[in-house]
Amino acid sequence: MTGAGLERLSLNTATVKRATLGEAVDVAARAGYGAVGLWRDRVEEAGVAPTARIVRDAGLRVSSLCRGGFLTASTDDGVRAALDDNRRAIDDAAAVGTTELVMVVGGLPASGEPGGPPREGAAPGDRDVVAARARVADRLADLAPHAADAGVRLALEPLHPMFAADRAVISTLAQALDLAAPHPADVVGVVVDTYHVWWDPALETSVARAGAERRIASYQVCDWNLPLAADPLLSRGYPGDGYVDFPAITRLVADAGYDGDVECEIFHADVWATPAADVARIVAERYATHVAPHLTRG
Amino acid sequence: MTGAGLERLSLNTATVKRATLGEAVDVAARAGYGAVGLWRDRVEEAGVAPTARIVRDAGLRVSSLCRGGFLTASTDDGVRAALDDNRRAIDDAAAVGTTELVMVVGGLPASGEPGGPPREGAAPGDRDVVAARARVADRLADLAPHAADAGVRLALEPLHPMFAADRAVISTLAQALDLAAPHPADVVGVVVDTYHVWWDPALETSVARAGAERRIASYQVCDWNLPLAADPLLSRGYPGDGYVDFPAITRLVADAGYDGDVECEIFHADVWATPAADVARIVAERYATHVAPHLTRG
Question: Which stretches make up the Xylose isomerase-like TIM barrel domain (chains A, B) (predicted)?
């Protein structure tokens, strides 16, 4: 099935975490994918300009750059650092050739932390989640002009509510759309990641709204497996292994008018231990079985 | 501080899991609590009539019986078994002297399972969460007349979305209120448990709605600790140890007009290993510090 019907499929480099950028691009291209989704660690290793060339030479698109965000800092230094880092991420997204910068907006600032990604074992500090969300809105307003100038969309990713304390105070699509609302649809959008949103009782309404507002920046497919891994961040599965209803959610996304790339991003120790070419093949098979048949607008 | 200002505080027997019913009631009464929340395992051990007598003789109320639910079975046998069990739970609630039966409505039926509490390691079966929610609505309609006759309210507990696959397809207060809407407020209500709802971006709106509809059946306080325990069900903490903003949420509940008991239900291996009298004292101190000062309507 190599190549057949995979033109919208994108391999996220985090799914083949141990591969270099070149290796990840190579296995995706050989398996017939249309695109790759890039994490910044791989881009930084290879360099921005070489990354763009490697992907282009393989005949692939960049579906998104992951990630900007961590916008909840409450100190002046933390805010300045977050804005600097996100402006660099916006520039990098444009330079590697994608319009979509995935934003993981950050959790509650831990005790004594200036913001930024969570530190293992950090104590609870600020508990005001309502104020943290307001700071995210303020930082989006700060960043939107730079994003618009660069032709890059800030793609807000609601994370599963189990990450609300330490990773993302955006927990639902409706909330992401409310935060995007003050901005043009090509400047602030939303990510629909099945792992994070499958449980949402408002999913049908929110996906339709996201489509009507033309804000769906990325559709990401990954399954919800049980039991949760000791680190729940590493608890994702190949589509078909867990509890997510891929046909139903894919039809919602298609009916909302989304016709962009479908990225597969899996964090899982077993997947990372598998040779990258095998992972690319398995993902392609699962996509062809559980997702692709439902991508046609009903 | 024994007894001072603790008249609305209720000790859930699950918090002192290794205590017998008599021991749990005794430590709650000695610490000055006004009530106890009962799990059915302790009631079954002691017997229904003796349970009512033990609590009454200690001068306490029963704030709730936990739990009915597991209503998502899709087979005739599974539905019949669920209805039988829930009618017994309704009768037991009335007999032990509470009007509130906490309902954990059940997750997706596992492969080959007739429904009921999750079995460790069960494979994914039915993935249609929308249909599972519709079956919950049907079962509530089946049970409502029996509950009304018994003077017992079915108190729908939204569980944190990380339990949506295996324990409760009700994940938000708004969704619980929508399911309650066809029924009188004294027949179907909702539980506000901080552990399960603290992350919800619609929390303020939903708590206010629950109050306006007079459906708040129980306010339960328990903290969200990180990192999650290997079994996330056992990841709760004493109020003040984690990320929950107790003053803010308690004020929402008070402003919504709730004037009932405040139950503390903690599942945590360290808490269970602590002598019950010490647990009761610690919970009372945390309640007095983080919760009670904010229970006055603002």
Answer: 25-277
From B109, which residue of chain A is nearest by alpha-carbon distance? Answer: A243
**B54 contacts B25 by C-beta, under 8 angstroms:** yes
Q: Which amino acid is at A64?
A: S
Does residue A10 contact residue A36 with C-beta atoms inside 8 Å? yes
Distance CA A227, CA A242 (A): 10
Burial class for A86, CB neighbours closer than 10 Å (0-12, 13-18, 19+): buried
Measured between CA atoms, how close is B6 to chain A, in angstroms? 25
How many C-beta neighbours within 10 Å does residue A184 have?
14
For A145-165, what is each residue's pLDDT tens digit? 999 999 999 999 999 999 999
Tell me how far apart the alpha carbons of residues A173 and A73 are, in angstroms, rounded to a whole number.
Answer: 22
Does the beta carbon of B200 lie under 8 angstroms from any beta carbon of chain A? Answer: yes
- Give domain status of residue A4, yes or no: no
Residue B162 has its nearest CB partner, among A121, A160, A174, at A160
Phi, psi (rounded to 5 degrees) for A146: -65, -40
When pLDDT is cut at 50, 70 and 90, the band that residue A122 belongs to is low
Q: Let me know if residue B212 belongs to a domain.
A: yes
How far is it, in rounded angstroms, from Cα A125 to Cα A116?
Answer: 14
Specify the number of domains making up chain B. Answer: 1
CATH code of B157's domain: 3.20.20.150
Q: What is the ipTM of this complex?
A: 0.93
| Domain carrying residue B179 | 9-294
pLDDT digits (tens, 9 = 90+) for B129-186: 999 999 999 999 999 999 999 999 999 999 999 999 999 999 999 999 999 999 999 9
Residues, chain B: 298
Percent of all residues in chain B with a pLDDT value above 90, rounded to a whole number: 86
- CA of A91, closest CA in chain B: separation in Å? 31
Q: Which residues neighbour B225 within 8 Å (Cβ) at sequence distance 6 or greater?
A: B235, B236, B237, B241, B242, B243
Residue A126 identity (one-letter amino acid): D
DSSP characters over A64-119: EEEEEE-----SHHHHHHHHHHHHHHHHHHHHHT-SEEEEE-B-SPPTT--SSSPP
Q: Please report the pLDDT score of residue B234 as a whole number.
A: 75
Residue A2: inside a domain: no
> Is the CB of B121 inside 8 Å of chain A's CB atoms?
yes
Average pLDDT across chain B, whole number: 93
Residues of A in contact with B119 (CB under 8 A): none
* CB atoms inside a 10 Å sphere around CB A114: 16
Q: How many residues does chain A have?
A: 298
Q: Per the CB < 8 Å rule, is A165 touching B224?
A: yes
Per-residue pLDDT at A123 exceeds 70: no
Q: Is residue A34 part of a domain?
A: yes
The model's pLDDT over A197-215, given as tens digits with 9 standing for 90+, comes to: 999 999 999 999 999 999 9
- d(CA A180, CA A202) in angstroms, rounded, equals 18
- Candidates B199, B264, B269, B265; CA nearest to B234 is B269
Encode pLDDT of B87-120 as tens digits: 999 999 999 999 999 999 999 986 555 555 555 5
- Tokens representing residue B115 in the block: 């429904």
Half-sphere exposure of residue A269: CA atoms within 13 angstroms, side-chain side:
8
Q: At what angle do helices B173-180 and B129-150 cross, to 10 degrees?
A: 60
